[in-house]
């Protein structure tokens, strides 16, 4: 027993550091996991048109990411330019057209949802649909920027 | 004074086992070699030291004064060649020769310390502690020199210091030739190998995390990591006499493994969080390395040759640690990078900055990540926000992105720290065998 005492003290000292570190979240100090795009994300009451457009875009990304089985963040990184979208399509074994179509479908659904929720009016919804249908996804946000004159 | 000079010699020679850690990116840039190849600047020294420690000890046991002097000359010549190397192959070759000099210096110093101090326990204490201090301060010293004067200075400043060590030989008389050495103490040396594998993590990974991971200056990081050798020195000097050597070794191994595991689970990024684990590792190393060296040399007629075996075991452990941990860390960093980019994208999307600026911010952050990758640096989040408003929303986003970066880097080091803890803990197996045999 006397011989085991130093060993027990050593274990105790190690635990005295390790246990508080774990209790303070040491085991989960890693990049925050991204949210499930298929899970319901609540619509905030948009304060202005800009916020409404943002929520449409985010909701669209969620829908498309869910359909493609990837995260919203992976998708937003993929649609930032043409080259990134090609890379994304290769990596996930889908064609570029399928990826583009998924993003478009998601955006159209989001515009419908926003219009139904009363977040945007009929004319803005119609304009947004036209933008989504006529330009590649990586250009959608740039096109939205051109709508800035509509914002208050 | 003589003992201090001999201790300095051991510390200087063994500092070279880790001194180039923070200089590797600069060496890589200068010679245009791959990351795998540049790591050999570190590995080759330890490999040659492990391979030649015992042959060097056989030479040192016969003529310790001459072996020490020749070791210094070889070390000085090789250090000059390292500092002036025009090609990568020359640098690698010179590092191998430097290890030959280091093997002669360290093994001969054991004999000369024994002649100077008289007591075996004190000799082992000074010899082991000097090695721990040298290896522990090596990365930070190399980092400061690289930052201030360039990587070549790491080797060139060692030249005058090594030449001063020759003063230790003045007026020193050689002891009579000892009896034949006999077989090495296998279990103690195997345990040393495992503990030293864990030591690699403690020395290399902490400094890499502080400097390359959390952006500390090498000088500040050097100050932070002095905690570990300081704890080792205190425990080596004040170890309770009532504590048996084997029990002390087992306790030390548990403390080293516990400290390394705590480093794997730090709850925040910041140097202060490394202090308690460093104290555990330092105390553990003081108990384990000194105790195992004492066990390996106990009752042996020829201390120098058996000291050579312990040196070989320790540096074989360092090589094992490097070979195991380097690929694990590289893979973990790549995985963490991808997770951090995803988490960063989520921060941008969920931030309160103007919606239409989000995609541009994401692109600017990715450009900064790519630039940092090419330069072998840590991404500077604020650089991506240089031309943006300095308001609350952008400020919150910068903090959020920095937090994700810290989380990614810290979590990438978790696996290697845990692996090192397991490696250190494996030393309990030979220690247990030793206990059973001697029980």
Biggest β-sheet description of chain B: none
Largest interface: A-B, 43 and 49 residues
* Average pLDDT metric of chain A: 77
For the residues shown, what is the average pLDDT of chain B? 86
SS element count, helices of chain A? 7
Structural class of chain A, by secondary structure, is mainly alpha
Instruction: Indicate the proportion of strand residues of chain A.
Output: under 5%
Oligomer: heterodimer
Terminal CA distance of chain A: 79 Å
- The span between the termini of chain B is 41 Å
Order of helices and strands of chain B: HHHHHHHHHHHHHHHHHH
- What is the 3D shape of chain A? elongated
Largest sheet of chain A: none
Summarize the helix and strand pattern of chain A as letters: HHHHHHH
How many helical stretches of chain B? 18
Number of domains of chain B: 2
